Amino acid sequence: MKTSLSGKWLLVAGAYALVMGAAWAQGSPGKPITFVVPFTAGSGTDIVARLVAETMQRNMGQTIVVENRPGAGGSIASAQVARAEADGHTVLIPSSSHAVNPAVYPNLPYDTLRDFVGVTALAALPNVMLTAPGKGYKTVADVVAAAKAKPGQLNYASAGIGSATHLNAEKFRLQAGIEATHVPYRGTPEALADVMGERVDWFFSPLSSALPLIREGKVVPLAVSTATRHAALPNVPTTVEAGVPGSDFVFWVGMVVSAKTPPAQIERLHAEASKALADPAVVERLGRQGAVAYPLSTADFNQFIRTEMDAAARIARAANLKPQ
To answer: pTM score, two decimals?
Structure first.
């Protein structure tokens, strides 16, 4: 039986649809993926994003572009991703600030729980409390004593209001019982520059960004923020060991997409990110930056975000954090 021209067209169209459907299921390999990083290049979040992107790009055979969109504690980047086409090709790589911003910014142009879904955590890393050699602080106790002797006169940096570095500093300040002045910066590199320039007294920097400067003697590490010491700085105490109970804090970096993203795309991103984080070379390179691979299931990561939001809200209320 002969097939009509219209029948042939239907067969061709059907075959094309099958091919395109398969390509879509594989993540539209021809379309680049954009990792939107809410902080400046060289920040802890940016370093983790680029390490993971490099390996995922190689494994997937698909271009991944890292785009830095700093500002407002990461909420500018988050708003961009919330508005983007929800096809799995625009991915937010936030830090802990993703859970902090709802408690700090009352008029966010998105709802963190409604508009986003977490794909996986990527890495956990300590912050390290830094000061300049010329400031003369040798220990955390020195900083606390100086702050108590001159309430409100000492100042501390952050990578922006609502950033993880900001929340870490506020938790430390509250637990230490001191008053000091917050100086927000555009990102970690800018804050580090003013630490070295002795324009601020201290800064809780992501260890990944601080390690080269510590090794060069340009900054002094007073304590790490995690509950245990870090192998990269074995002689540096934790803030708890240094005399400030309850001040421990973990800086995390994750992968988040629009809640409207098709489940197949979320699963693909999760699988590829998990594969990258299991790569020994990635684990080793993260370790050199003071970070630890921290893959979680999608369900566990979303529950983790909710828990982090509750904790951030308590600190924000206690510290009366508000946009400036």
So the answer is: 0.82
